[in-house]
Amino acid sequence: MSIQAAAGRAMVIRHDACALHVPGAEIWVGVRTPGTEVTERVARIEATLAASGYVFAEAADHSDDVLASIHDPGLLHYLETAYQRWIEAGFTDDPGQDRVVPYLMPTAGMLDGLPEREPTAIHAAAGRWCYDTMTLIGPGTWAAARAAIDVTLTAVDYVTAGARLVYALTRPPGHHATRSAFGGSCYLNNAAVAAQALRQAGHERVAIIDIDAHHGNGTQAIFYDRADVSYGSLHIDPAAGWFPHYAGFADERGRGIGDGANLNIALAPETGDDNWLTAVDQLAVHARDRGASALVVSLGVDAAQDDPESPLRVSTRGYETAGRIMASLRLPTVAVQEGGYHLDTLGTLVDATLSGLGG
User: Fold this and answer.
1) CATH number of residue 205's parent domain
2) 112 in a structural domain
3) 209 has a pLDDT exceeding 60
4) CA atoms within 13 A on the CB side of 205
5) Any domain includes 126
6) How far apart are CA 330 and CA 137, in angstroms?
7) Quick one: which of 150, 175, 213, 243 is 20 to 30 A from 269 by CA?
8) What does the radius of gyration of the chain's CA atoms come to, in whole angstroms?
9) Is residue 205, in this structure, part of any structural domain at all?
10) Residue 143, exposed/middle/buried by CB under 10 A (0-12, 13-18, 19+)?
11) What spatial distance separates the first Cα and last Cα of the chain, rounded to whole Å?
12) Which residues pair with 168 in a beta bridge?
């Protein structure tokens, strides 16, 4: 395995199948709206990084071993089979819904202590495994999400072989996917898989730093009871009315032996570079204090000035500086792509962050 890349540049891992997921739309407050997590995101990032001289490598196939240690087998089976079952049930014809959309969620309030069962009807099963109406499943969703796992694990392979920084161009993103549920445009948790794979490769402590504009509730939940993987996130304050609404607060510090391994920094709208970078520095200190020997970066760039999905107003220079702060940890690093939805600036923002991380 060659680990040579241009000086100061991350190696980029990619997979054609990551473009196969076409959500088609989002159902938001009952209204069908255009999707924001679109296939063109991959093309824009690839074009920018190629023009900047990054070295690309294709993802290799990997077994489901690490994936199955992160996600409930029932969730994996559902995601793999949901679209075909939807077609077989006739929903593409009646009522004419060409994507799998939940309509009923078995919340704790609904069940009121009763056991959660696997429903027979596919339109009911959708809400058994998905916690929102925005995250639709189409014909290429499973192939893309599973390819993103191969991208992630290939990036880990290069890091464990000696590369200092490898970027996994993952799509769809993953940090909102919990052990047994998907949502927030995320299906499988790429960052969690990266951290677990690094643990299994011999790193006793792994740190995840999440700079996406939204709290990675899925990553937090997966490691909330563990001390060996720390999670730190800076994000738009959920108390200000932002997704994921129910998680991402400062008092969520971990549980049991994981107490103290979780750090959330919630930021007010219009935060801008200075306070955002102060928070990045706090997350880096937390990772250092936890004794991490490897780093996973959930690289979302939707905190940027022009991004439609958050009001944090971070500049391109801010992202490069954030990369430099994290690079100061001097840890072998896997960066996985999360959010970022302003197509005209998306590639530049990723490039800036990776340039900082490579510094």
Assistant:
1) 3.40.800.20
2) no
3) yes
4) 15
5) no
6) 39
7) 175
8) 19
9) yes
10) middle
11) 23
12) 13, 336
Best CA proximity match to 174, nearest among 242, 221, 127, 224: 221
Range of the domain at 26: 11-71+143-357
Single-letter amino acid, residue 350: V
227, two tokens = 């001390």
Q: What is the pLDDT of residues 70-89, one digit of tens each?
A: 999 999 999 999 999 999 99
Contact residues for 178 (Cβ-Cβ < 8 A; gap 6+): 189, 217, 218, 221, 222
Listed in sequence order, the DSSP H helices in the chain are 40-51, 65-70, 73-88, 108-111, 122-129, 141-160, 190-200, 217-223, 272-289, 316-327, 343-357
- Which two tokens mark 253? 């510090």
- Domain contains 206: yes
Q: What are the backbone angles phi and psi of residue 197, rounded to the nearest 5°? A: -65, -40
**Contact in structure between 167 and 52 (CB atoms under 8 Å):** no
What is the enclosing helix (H) or strand (E) of 28? strand 26-28
Residue 174 has pLDDT above 80, yes or no: yes
Q: How many domains are there within the chain?
A: 1
Q: Indicate yes or no: pTM above 0.90.
A: yes
Residue numbers annotated as active site: 176
